[in-house]
Amino acid sequence: MSPSLPMPPQTYRADGGLRRVGVEVEFSGLHLDEAAALVAQAVSGSVTSPGRYERSIDGDPAGAWQVELDFTLLKTLGRRERDGAELMDAAGDLAEDVLRLVAERIVPVEVVSPPLPLDRLGTVNGLIWELRAAGARGTGEELAYAFGLQLNPELPATDVDSIRQYLQAFLCVEDWLRERAQVDLTRRLTFFADPFPKAYARKVVAGDYAPNLDRLIDDYLQDNPTRNRALDLLPLFLHLDADRVRAVVEDERVKPRPTLHYRLPNSEIEIPGWDLGAAWGDWLVVERLAADPRLLDVLCAEYAAFLAQPLERLVGDWAQTTAAWLTRHQLR
């Protein structure tokens, strides 16, 4: 791994394997097949087409890469055969064509990696540089664009204390992460990753919060029955307890996986030099806090005190307080 992509403190899973990270990058400026060809070249893979708006690149030992138009309805339509023999078929074909024309203007092409071992994140950076050179453009290119970079870091362990520590660490630094990310206006207006409710944060960072797994999931679902959080835990909880989650969240886009889903960073792929470095570096602050329970308890206590003071919440700047605290403790 290059110096710009350092390792987190906990590099291995409880079973001894190197942790993995999935990466999702959204952009415009390239056709589906152009992007798929670049991915295939980067990983020495071969391209297949599960549908008209999806490409799968096979051959990487880590698993298949996906390149697709990020529009669920269009992808579903693209998996059906088109023959136009019947009136209803022709009407469906016309509807698909109209959706495609609209989608191609505002819906991103998305490259989705398989879970990559930590020491292979440089592969994604190399691919980003190739996509940019070929004409890929990010969220800042058009007012209508709302394109993101998403990280799916595998947890070192899925016991309740490990999950709680990651969640607490994120809640404590979420305001700082948002300030660092400078989230694009269009992405904010689409409510793609709303902040966690402050009442929920207050509950979770409290010094006596030590739930079992059932309660941790129930508390989360009560206040966050949605994918639209900057750190989406629904895939993880669905992996751990599908019945409990599906009783509350029916959204079929939520898929089970033993990872966190960090959705905050912009895709700024058109900017020379932009890659995973900044987003990954910010994420590592969460990793370092989660790996140091003593420091995490200190920050949780300070954040709990801040949340308990309505006037301080109104006039104070927790993001700046967090930045100073992280610098003082050499966590950034």
Describe the structure.
With about 325 residues, the protein is an alpha+beta fold. It has helices at about 30-45, 70-80, 85-105, 120-135, 160-180, 185-190, 200-205, 215-225, 235-240, 240-245, 275-290, 295-305, 310-315, 320-330; strands at about 20-25, 45-50, 55-60, 65-70, 110, 115, 150-155, 230, 260. Strands 1, 2, 3, 4, 5, 6 and 7 form a 7-stranded antiparallel β-sheet that branches. Strands 8-9 form a two-stranded antiparallel ribbon. Helix 1 (about 30-45) runs antiparallel to helix 4 (about 120-135) and helix 7 packs across helix 12 (about 295-305).
Topology (SSEs and partners):
Layout (H helix, E strand, L loop, with lengths): L19 E8 L4 H12 L2 E6 L2 E5 L6 E5 L2 H7 L8 H20 L2 E4 L3 E2 L3 H14 L14 E5 L6 H22 L3 H5 L8 H8 L7 H11 L7 E2 L1 H7 L1 H5 L14 E2 L14 H14 L2 H15 L2 H6 L2 H11 L4
Antiparallel strand pairs: 1-5, 1-6, 1-7, 2-3, 3-4, 4-5, 8-9
Helix pairs in contact: 1-4, 5-11, 5-12, 5-14, 7-12
Helix/strand-derived category reads: alpha+beta
How far is the first residue's CA from the last residue's CA? Answer: 19 Å
Radius of gyration: 21 Å
Mean pLDDT metric: 88
Following the backbone from N to C, one meets helices and strands in this order, namely: EHEEEHHEEHEHHHHEHHEHHHH
Give keywords.
single chain; 332 residues; alpha+beta; seven-stranded antiparallel sheet; two-stranded antiparallel sheet; 14 helices; globular
